[in-house]
């Protein structure tokens, strides 16, 4: 077997600010090996850029237009790849996939990896375009069975080229016990505030709990275009005393550790980093039936699963969880933590990546 060590690996995303892709790349930047990792963003940097730099990894922010298609961006990426001569280019997200894969092919990069980060909303034309683009890649990675199925069905990616690689989770040192409030049940969501996350649903559930005198506090960590709408809905539902908007938090662990229940209400999802982080904290977790969440959680064993966009199902599940005694809640939280530690470590993720990064050299 022909081998090369170390590899020069370029990870290309659209942004390196905050979000699911950025969180995954920030986690990957913690890897300590002989390979040379270069993290690049087509457009802007920010929070993730700074976190990756703290791990002493090279970061390149191009500040280029990212909307598909852009010939200038494509040209600049080709020049960059030819200059750097990487062994691997691994792109994540639609804009990075489109421009990065084509540029890597034109630059004769030995190994080209595309990565779909969730269930995209694609027109019939977009499906055909990405089917053609993905044909240039050696592998196309997805982070859940749902994403893999989409790639095969809608983008016509061949079975031999598609591979599921779940997101990695970083395991920081945490206190052995969580801070549990006795007088109020604390619920938390950590999410971008966008329509697809369906935070509205949980706000309506909080209002219903308030109506039947079940005291809860709902903390929302995150920012996004829906923040104004959600604040307005909170006022309309008369639950301003029960809901707090805490904005984006780089390190959500202290908030998670003081919560009784984590809730994910998305309409669709690839792999929820915040769900995995909450479960690692031992926080009992509830999710809609989306993406990798269905693979991580076994209902009523290490967490709970409810139907998508079903307020009644969500309300009944939350109410039943609140009625459980604390020992039962804690036990389910601990089972959730064990699941994350066993299956979603950074090393597991890197090992899977290396099986495809080394493809050209076997």
From TrEMBL:
Gene3D superfamilies: Glycogen Phosphorylase B. It comes from the Bacteria. Residues 18-169 form the Glycosyltransferase subfamily 4-like N-terminal domain. One of its GO terms (molecular function) is glycosyltransferase activity. This is Glycosyltransferase. PANTHER family: GLYCOSYLTRANSFERASE. It comes from Flavobacterium restrictum. The lineage of its organism: Bacteria, Pseudomonadati, Bacteroidota, Flavobacteriia, Flavobacteriales. Keywords: Transferase. Residues 179-330 form the Glycosyl transferase family domain. The keyword Cell wall biogenesis/degradation does not apply. CDD domains: GT4_GT28_WabH-like. The keyword Transferase applies.
């Amino acid at each position: 077997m022909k081998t090369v060590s170390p590899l020069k690996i370029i990870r290309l995303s659209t942004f390196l600010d905050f979000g699911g892709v950025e969180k995954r790349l920030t986690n990957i930047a913690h890897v300590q090996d002989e390979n040379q990792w270069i993290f690049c963003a087509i457009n802007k940097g920010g929070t993730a850029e700074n976190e990756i730099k703290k791990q002493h990894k090279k970061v390149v922010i191009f500040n280029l237009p990212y909307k598909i298609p852009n010939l200038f961006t494509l040209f600049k990426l080709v020049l960059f790849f030819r200059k750097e001569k990487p062994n691997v280019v691994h792109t994540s997200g639609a804009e990075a996939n489109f421009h990065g894969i084509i540029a890597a092919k034109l630059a004769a990069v030995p190994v080209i990896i595309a990565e779909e980060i969730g269930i995209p909303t694609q027109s019939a034309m977009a499906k055909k375009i990405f089917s053609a683009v993905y044909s240039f890649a050696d592998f196309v990675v997805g982070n859940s069975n749902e994403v893999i199925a989409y790639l095969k069905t809608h983008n016509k990616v061949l079975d031999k080229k598609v591979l599921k690689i779940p997101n990695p989770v970083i395991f920081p040192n945490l206190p052995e016990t969580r801070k549990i409030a006795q007088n109020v049940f604390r619920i938390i969501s950590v999410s971008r505030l966008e329509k697809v996350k369906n935070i509205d649903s949980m706000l309506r559930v909080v209002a219903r709990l308030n109506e039947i005198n079940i005291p809860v506090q709902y903390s929302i960590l995150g920012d996004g275009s829906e923040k104004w709408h959600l604040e307005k809905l909170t006022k309309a539902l008369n639950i301003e005393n029960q809901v707090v908007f805490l904005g984006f938090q780089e390190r959500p662990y202290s908030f998670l550790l003081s919560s009784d229940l984590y809730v994910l209400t998305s309409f669709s999802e690839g792999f929820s980093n915040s769900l995995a982080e909450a479960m690692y904290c031992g926080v009992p977790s509830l999710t809609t039936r989306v993406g990798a969440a269905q693979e991580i959680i076994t209902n009523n064993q290490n967490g709970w699963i409810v139907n998508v966009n079903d307020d009644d199902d969500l309300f009944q599940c939350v109410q039943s969880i609140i009625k459980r005694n604390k020992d039962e809640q804690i036990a389910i939280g601990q089972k959730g933590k064990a699941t994350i530690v066993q299956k979603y470590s950074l090393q597991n993720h890197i090992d899977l990546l290396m099986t495809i990064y080394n493809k050209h050299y076997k």
